[in-house]
Specification:
4 strands; about 80 residues; alpha+beta
Length: about 80
């Protein structure tokens, strides 16, 4: 497993909408061996960031795709420090 940070460009996004999308991720993640750990929202900038423990970036993306369709614009492998 590895840590990934993904970013979404979502103009007009609200914290409530992201909370609902995250809830849907949690319902789907186990099927893909993924654990969505946390997320951050910047509504003014239309940005969302998700931290996920996953076997691959594609597995993390598949959870978003299946749960709600809001696939990340970028996914970076990161190390917590």
């Amino acid at each position: 497993m590895a840590l990934f940070m993904d970013t979404h460009d979502l103009p007009g996004v609200t914290a409530d909408a992201v909370a609902e999308a995250h809830r849907k991720d949690l319902e789907v993640q186990q099927r893909h061996g993924v654990d969505y750990l946390n997320y951050w929202v910047d509504p003014a900038a239309g940005k969302v960031f998700c931290l996920v423990d996953a076997p691959s970036a594609e597995a993390a993306a598949q959870v978003h795709r299946e749960a709600h369709g809001l696939v990340a614009d970028t996914i970076f492998q990161v190390e917590q420090g």
